[in-house]
Specification:
Strand content: 5-15%
Low-confidence stretches: none
Mean pLDDT: 93
Radius of gyration: 17 Å
Strand order of the largest sheet: 3-2-1-4-5-7-6
Shape: globular
Number of helices: 9
Order of helices and strands: EHEHEHEHEHEHHHHE
Distance between the termini: 23 Å
């Protein structure tokens, strides 16, 4: 007898700079994996656990089925209210941040890690670029027992993907950002190794984005810009997620997002 149950999917750990990055960049993939029984989680590099945005993040992750927030608690490069008294992510010693992320990877033991691209995800935010650097280093370090032995038993990630935007895939997004004076950094189309149609998950993805309520109240954040659009245009922007495979570490197997 043929089963109608969708095949199980690999576990996914997202690593992003700020609350809302996870929903905007990978909300569809996270929701789909959770729906099919895969373990999913998100590490957020900035903002304190007792901040209002932490509560919003918890609500967004609940919508996506990605568990409770895992926050490193560093300060935001552009917002001093993110984690008062804490070191900004861009100023923190690189090896210290890598070690903390290694601990999260070894604790969760994901098949796939998803993070920012080298450009800094659309607008080149310095926190995005630093999170990309930390994620690349931590994925490799997590597999090597001689590195950060205090962070737990080694774990080899099957694949590392960077969420990105190709030159040809930003038709509605570019003018939206330009309207508030933001540039859009894109990669050549050939750089994209997985374009995932997440249209079936767009409703949940959008609910997760809207859970970041503080971002809807300001004029320039992307959630606020998307909130002013009609549903058709917003779905075109959110309905495809683009990724570039930049791993895995040696011995990580052949886990791929294209298996969705």
């Amino acid at each position: 007898m043929t089963s109608s149950t969708p095949p199980s999917l690999p576990s996914v750990l997202g690593v992003f700079a700020h609350p809302d990055d996870e929903s905007l960049l990978a909300g569809g993939v996270l929701a789909r994996h959770a729906d099919r029984g895969a373990r999913t989680a998100v590490v957020t590099a900035t903002w304190a656990e007792d901040s209002p945005r932490a509560a919003e993040l918890a609500d967004a992750l609940a919508v996506l089925g990605a568990g409770p927030p895992r926050m490193l608690g560093y300060g935001d490069a552009r917002n001093p209210d993110a984690a008062p008294g804490s070191t900004r992510l861009v100023d923190a010693p690189l090896d210290d941040v890598v070690g903390r992320l290694v601990a999260e990877i070894r604790r969760f033991r994901p098949d796939i890690v998803i993070g920012h691209d080298a450009l800094g995800q659309m607008t080149g935010h310095p926190d995005h670029r630093r999170t990309h650097q930390v994620t690349v280093l931590a994925v490799e370090a997590a597999a090597l027992g001689a590195l950060h032995p205090e962070a737990g038993e080694p774990w080899t990630v099957g694949a590392l993907y960077a969420a990105t935007h190709p030159d040809s895939g930003v038709g509605d997004l570019a003018p939206l950002l330009a309207g508030v004076g933001k540039s859009l950094l894109t990669v050549p189309d050939a750089y994209v190794t997985a374009a995932v149609d997440v249209t079936p998950e767009v409703g949940r993805k959008w609910r997760a984005v809207r859970a970041h309520r503080s971002q809807l109240e300001r004029p320039r954040p992307l959630p606020a810009l998307l909130d002013r659009l009609n549903e058709e245009t917003r779905t075109r922007i959110l309905g495809t997620e683009f990724y570039t495979r930049i791993g895995p570490a040696p011995g990580g197997g052949a886990v791929r997002l294209r298996e969705l």
